[in-house]
Write a structure and sequence with these properties.
- By secondary structure, this protein is α+β, with helices and mostly antiparallel strands.
- Helix content is about 35%, strand content about 10%.
- Helix 1 packs across helix 2.
C-alpha cells in the first residue's frame, strides 16, 4: 500500500476454498476471530490474551502460526511503538494507528515531507500565484514524482510553508496576476525576498520540527498527535 493513499481501512478478502482459514486449529481460530474483529484498529497482545482467554504459551504459538499462514501481520502503533500490535491482513492500519500518509513504518517521514515542501514552493514560485487545485495537479503531473497526493495533503504542506513565510495565502481580486482565478478564491503567492540583505525570511517555526509537520493542525496536548508523545519535539527540546 502506498503511504499516500487516503484513509483506507477495510480491504476485506473473502475466504477461498482451501484457504489457510479453513485449516485453523481451535485456538488459532479463537485468536484470529479476536484480531479480525478489531478491523483497522488492530489489537495489543495483552488485550488480545484477555479477550481470547487463552494461556500465554498458546497465544504465542497461535500468533506464529497465523503469521506463517499470512492471516495476520504485526503493525507499528505510533501511540505505543514498544507494544506488539497485530491486525488481520485483510485490513490496513487506520490513521490513529499508522499516523496517516506522512508516516512511514511508524516514523514521521521528514525527508519526504521536506521534498514535497520544496516542490510545492518551486511550483508556486514558477507561477507567481496558484490555487490549491493548480498546485495539486502540478505535483501529481511532475515526472519525477511517482505517487499521487490529495488536495488535503497538499493543503497541509502549503500550511507549513505559510508558517515558514515561504508563501502567503491571498484571495483573488480577479485582476492582473489573478485574472485567471475567480474573484474571491483563495490562492497562494510566492514570497521571494524579505528581511535584511535580501535574504529569504525565516519563519518562526523554521527551526523546530513543528514547522515541517503537516499534522500540526491536529496536534493537541492530550490528542493522538501531541507534543507529549512526539519524539521529534522531545529531541528538539533536548538539543
Amino acid at each position: 500500500m502506498s503511504r499516500l493513499q487516503g484513509p483506507s481501512s477495510l480491504k476485506r478478502k473473502r475466504p477461498e476454498l482451501n484457504s489457510p482459514v479453513q485449516s485453523l486449529t481451535e485456538h488459532e481460530r479463537i485468536l484470529y476471530d479476536v484480531i479480525r474483529s478489531k478491523q483497522d484498529i488492530g489489537i495489543w497482545t495483552r488485550d488480545m490474551k484477555k479477550e481470547a482467554k487463552l494461556p500465554d504459551n498458546v497465544v504465542n504459538k497461535s500468533l506464529k502460526a497465523l503469521q506463517v499462514k499470512n492471516l495476520i501481520k504485526e503493525v507499528v502503533n505510533i501511540q505505543n511503538k514498544g507494544r506488539k500490535h497485530f491486525m488481520a491482513t485483510g485490513f490496513e492500519p487506520s490513521k490513529e494507528i499508522s499516523g496517516g500518509a506522512w508516516y512511514l513504518e511508524g516514523s514521521l517521514d521528514t525527508e519526504f515531507i521536506e521534498s514535497l515542501r520544496q516542490l510545492c514552493k518551486r511550483q508556486i514560485e514558477k507561477k507567481g500565484v496558484a490555487t490549491l487545485e493548480e498546485v495539486t495537479d502540478l505535483i501529481n503531473s511532475y515526472p519525477a514524482f511517482n505517487v499521487d497526493v490529495t488536495k488535503q495533503q497538499i493543503e497541509e504542506i502549503l500550511r507549513t510553508l505559510i508558517w515558514d513565510n515561504a508563501i502567503m495565502e491571498v484571495k483573488s481580486n480577479g485582476m492582473g496576476e489573478f485574472a485567471s482565478i475567480p474573484f474571491g478564491k483563495v490562492c497562494y503567492r510566492y514570497v521571494s525576498k524579505g528581511g535584511l540583505g535580501g535574504e529569504p525570511r525565516a519563519g518562526a517555526l523554521a527551526s523546530i520540527p513543528c514547522g515541517v509537520c503537516p499534522r500540526i493542525s491536529h496536534c493537541t496536548p492530550d490528542g493522538v498527535i501531541s507534543p507529549k508523545t512526539c519524539v521529534y519535539y522531545q529531541k528538539w527540546l533536548d538539543f
